[in-house]
Amino acid sequence: MSAGTPTVPIITADTITKLPPEADGAVILSGSHGGRYPGYLAAKAHVRAVILSDAGLGKEEAGIGSLPYLEALGIAAATVSHLSCRIGDTADMRARGVISHANAPARAAGVAPGMSCIDAAGLLRSARHVRATAPTLGEARGEVPVPGGTRRILLLDSAALVTPGDAGQIVVTGSHGGLVGGAPYMALRTEGFAGIFHDAGIGIENAGTTRLPALDERGIASFTVSAASARIGDAASVFHDGIISVVNGTARRLGAAPGMRASEVLLDWARRS
Prior knowledge:
The chain is α/β, with parallel strands linked by helices. The chain has 2 domains: 10-124, no CATH class; 141-271, no CATH class. The protein contains 9 helices and 11 strands. A 6-stranded mixed beta sheet has the order 6-7-8-9-10-11. The mean pLDDT is 95.
C-alpha cells in the first residue's frame, strides 16, 4: 500500500451525515451510498478525498453521482463495489472493499478499479486538498399531498433528516436500506407508520435490505425499491418511480409485495384509517 502523505488522517464514518471536525483535509471512508447528496456533505466538510459505496449504480447511475459532482470541484472521490462489502459498514469496507469507480482527481492519485479500498485510501492521502464551496442541492425534505389522507407521506432525501415529529407518518427516504454500522436502532430514528428505502442493488449478504427485519421487530412497515427503478438519494424518485423489491412482514400484511409500484401502495396506506 502506498503511504501517500502519512500525516493525512484516514477517518471512517458509517454514515457521511456524521463527520467530525477532523474530516477537514482528511481521507474519508464512509459506508454511505455514492450519490450526489453524500458528495455534497463531503464537500461541505472540506474533505481531501472520500470513498463511498456504489450502491449498485442503479437508475441513471445515481449510486455514483457524487463522483462527477466532486470532480467538478476538484475533489477526489471513489466508490467500492456493493458486491464486495456491506453498505453502511466501514469495518467491512476496510476488510473487503474493492474499488469500482474513481473520478479524475482520484485517478490522478493512482486509484483504479480493482484496487482494495484500504490501498486506495492510502493513495488518496496525496490527493490535492480543495476547500471548495459546495453547490447546494435544493430542498432535501418534502411531502406528497394526500387529500383526505389520515397520515402524511414525507419525502426525505436522507434518513438523517428524520425528526421525532415524523412519528406515525409514512417516511420515504432516498437512503439505502442497510443498517448503519449494523445497529438496529438506526433503522429509522422515529416510530413511523412506515419506512421506505432504496435497496442499493441489494449487494453482498443482502446488505441493502437489512433495515427491514429490524423495523419489523418494531411493527413498522418497510420495503425497499429496486436500484434499477429509482435514483438513490432522491426520495421523490423513490416514491414516484420506485418498484418494490423487498418487503418486511408488517408491510406484507398491509398488502405490499415485490413488483408493485411504491406510490400506489403508499397512497393507499396514507388514506387508510
